[in-house]
Each structure stands twice: as structure tokens, then as C-alpha cells.
Amino acid sequence: MKAIVVEQNGPPETLRYQEVPDPSPKAGEVLVRTTLTSLNYADVQARRGGYEAGSLPPFIPGLDAVGVVEALGEDVEGLWVGQRVAVFTAGGSYAEKVTAKAALTYPVPPQLPDEAVSGLTALVTAYNTLTWAGRLQKGETVLVHAAAGGVGSLAIQIAKALGAGRVFGTVGSPAKAEFVRNLGADEVLGYEDFAEKVLGLTQQQGADLILDSVAGEVFNQGMQCLAPFGRLVVYGHASRQAGTFETRPLHRQNKAVIGYSSGHYRRSRPELLRPTVEAVFELLKAGKIRLEIGARFKLEEAPKAHALMEQRQSVGKILLYPQAIPYNT
């Protein structure tokens, strides 16, 4: 089969489209013929090297895929050959075929096209940062950083669907602001002095829940506009910098800083993700949220896709197709 291989850590050009052996499902796994896979920023960080969840080269990147079950390993129940599924992969998903644990394989409802469920990592991360980690309550004010990205664009919509009050988003360029407003954001801000702006918009109360995938200075500012009893959820370090904070305001105003990683759940408690997947599939079926597709590439064009993501010019999800790109989906 064909796959994208990271031969060495470095720029997008280190992604090589080449022939690799077909994978075989082990006990408790399924083999899936890939229809499409999505890019996640974790893929970029893994390719660069030094990312917490990255593998040593050579490796096939990719965290999730949509496709059709081609073979079942021993002891797999409730799934069958020919079934359309979305999966968190056991190996890299930038490939024509992937294996996945049965526990991380989810039948796709017939009402939903492949692209609707293609960003499984983003869908699960957006939902769980708001609910499990963020403990969102109806009427609360939510601030979503990187609001035009794969997770952020979904978090804006899910927050509204779950009854949030006002939802703010930050973006890195004015060109992305209209996109985020169309998702339902009440206010769209740039990163410069956003804490002061959030306080001004909330009569100095701040945001009840902040979702932060950037960290660094963005985290530091976020702590300045986190409301009493507020929660700040850190689920990434796109800035490649750590944030810092004082502990005294936490206990004085009942604030909380919480970490979240879908990857850690996949590795350590995979069974806990199924209720979330079912919940986001229901939101998709009801039309309450939609996965925004920012760009589509053939699998062999993965270097171009990575370059686009690194340039921070894309919005929504970027998809890779092992076969022809069905633009009419």
C-alpha cells in the first residue's frame, strides 16, 4: 500500500509518499481501508520532533481516519467487513490502510457522509474540553483560542449547542474573523490585549471557561481574564512555549487550571471515548454542529497540506484522500 512516511524530523519536505507493507490486524483490532484522514496540529509537531506523543522516525503520522472495515482480528465483536467506520488508529492514518483497536472503532451513522465525521480527534477534543474538563454550565461565558482551527471551530459551535451564554473566539488574522462569526461566535478578538477586551465585554468578570491550545503568553493573558470559579483548560502548546501562573488566585477565587489530552485517553482509557463520539455524532445528525472543511489534498500532497497548516492560513479541517478527492461530498 501507499503511505506517507516521516523519514526524519524536519520541515514538510521530510514527508515521503512511498510503498510500505500492508498492516495486519492483531487480536482485538480491525483493518480499515482508508477513505480519508484529517490533519491535526499534533501531526505537525510529531513531524518536527520533540512532541510528547511523537514517534521516532521512520513513522507514518496521523491520528484518525474514516473508511471501510476490510478485515477483523480475533475476538472482535459487533463490527463486520464492509462496515463504514471512523477510527482512532493504532498506527499512522496517512495511509491507504490502517489498523485500529475495536474499542476505538465507531460505526458511522448512515445519515452522515464521510467528511462530516472526518475530524474525529477534533470532534472529541472540542466536546471533552468543554464538558469533561471544562464542566461547562448553561449561560456561562466561553473563550475559545485558535477559534478558526479544527478544534476551535467545533468548540464554538458545541459551546452554543450545549447552552453557553456568550462565546468569544480569538484568531490570528482579520481574514479569519468573519469565518468564526459565521460559526456563531458573539465576539471575535485578536490576540493582542485580548484579556483586557474580554474583561471589558464582561463588566470585568472575565470568562467562565477558557479553551487554550496555544499556551505561552496566551495562557498568561488568559489567567488575567479568567472569572472567579472559572476553568482554564490547556490542551496544546502550539506556541511551543509554556505558560506560567501564580497559585494564590486559584484558591482565593476558586479558579482551576486543567489539562486535557485525547491522545492520553486513547492510550490509557479508550473505552471512555465512546460516549463522547456518540454524543458528537448526535449533534452532527441534528445539524447543531458541522465540521468545516478548509482544504482537501491527495495523500501524496501531504507536504503541501502540512505547509498550509504551519502557515496558519487555513480554517477548519484539512483532509487527505488516498484516492481521488470527491469534491461533491
Automatic annotation (TrEMBL):
<dbReference type="InterPro" id="IPR013154">
    <property type="entry name" value="ADH-like_N"/>
</dbReference>
<dbReference type="GO" id="GO:0070402">
    <property type="term" value="F:NADPH binding"/>
</dbReference>
<dbReference type="InterPro" id="IPR013149">
    <property type="entry name" value="ADH-like_C"/>
</dbReference>
<keyword id="KW-0560">Oxidoreductase</keyword>
<dbReference type="Pfam" id="PF00107">
    <property type="entry name" value="ADH_zinc_N"/>
</dbReference>
<dbReference type="InterPro" id="IPR020843">
    <property type="entry name" value="ER"/>
</dbReference>
<dbReference type="InterPro" id="IPR002364">
    <property type="entry name" value="Quin_OxRdtase/zeta-crystal_CS"/>
</dbReference>
<dbReference type="Pfam" id="PF08240">
    <property type="entry name" value="ADH_N"/>
</dbReference>
<dbReference type="InterPro" id="IPR036291">
    <property type="entry name" value="NAD(P)-bd_dom_sf"/>
</dbReference>
<keyword id="KW-0521">NADP</keyword>
<dbReference type="GO" id="GO:0008270">
    <property type="term" value="F:zinc ion binding"/>
</dbReference>
<dbReference type="InterPro" id="IPR047618">
    <property type="entry name" value="QOR-like"/>
</dbReference>
<dbReference type="GO" id="GO:0005829">
    <property type="term" value="C:cytosol"/>
</dbReference>
<dbReference type="GO" id="GO:0003960">
    <property type="term" value="F:quinone reductase (NADPH) activity"/>
</dbReference>
<dbReference type="InterPro" id="IPR011032">
    <property type="entry name" value="GroES-like_sf"/>
</dbReference>
<protein>
    <submittedName>
        <fullName>Quinone oxidoreductase</fullName>
    </submittedName>
</protein>
<dbReference type="GO" id="GO:0035925">
    <property type="term" value="F:mRNA 3'-UTR AU-rich region binding"/>
</dbReference>
<feature type="domain" description="Enoyl reductase (ER)">
    <location>
        <begin position="10"/>
        <end position="320"/>
    </location>
</feature>
